[in-house]
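#struct-help
A.M.: can someone run this one for me? Single chain, 271 residues.
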Amino acid sequence: MFEITGALFLIILGGIIGSIRIVEQGDQAIVQRLGRYRRTLNPGLNVVIPFLDSVLVETIREQLLDIEPQRAFTKDNVPIEVDAIVSWQVLDLRKAYYAVEDLQESLKQIVISTLRNEIGRLTLEDTFSSAATINQALLRQLDKSTANWGVKVIRVEVQEFQISPALRESLEKERAARSEKQAELIRTEGTVKSIQELAQALQGQMNAEDVLRYLVAKDYVTASMEISKSDNSKIVFMDPRALNEAVTDLMGNTGVITPRDRGNIDGDIDT
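D.P.: on it. Structure tokens below:
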């Protein structure tokens, strides 16, 4: 008799213990009775029916989904690799459990698909400056796709864009060439402007030839000093008479009347 009583007591005690389910803060639990949804347990002490109810505990905390680098093509058909991080949270555990087979894998596939589509709308140059736009597009698409899944996508962040080393080197060379071309254009425009201002200043001046000769000689000396700084430089001498002739020809070609020209003109008039 004592043995039977003791056995019944143990059975009853085991049943009581088995009927108690404690759900921790930050979690929820689904109760299924004979394979069908029964109810959702909130954090705290809960009672279920042993042997009939099964309890499935899931977190409702914010979770991170790390998307490994994915290959995509820009609008100008340039291959690029991009990765992202998705922050999401379960709001309705019943929907999240029954509405989709594999919640995290489904989220991952939607992120990858949307990411590729958004990059395909942009050129390579625009892609690197449009991370915020891509993030917002991903967030909108994920909200739309997960509306019936009982989850909330909190934020999406594209982490890094990567291109091949060969393409990166090619782009750097192209950027350097474009910068050099722009600098050369600025220098050319500055030179033209200086020449125009100098021509205007020399118009009608009696000593125009001397002024221009001084400026040319000054640039010649400056250039010679710069050349001499080079390790493999060579000293080059220019005949001063050739310099004078070059200046005289320049003055004649620009239409500036030198003192010598003015004397010739006055002689012709006297004759």
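A.M.: thanks! Strands lie at 20-23, 27-33, 36-41, 44-47, 53-59, 63-73, 79-90, 151-162.
D.P.: also worth noting: DSSP finds nine helices and eight strands in the chain.
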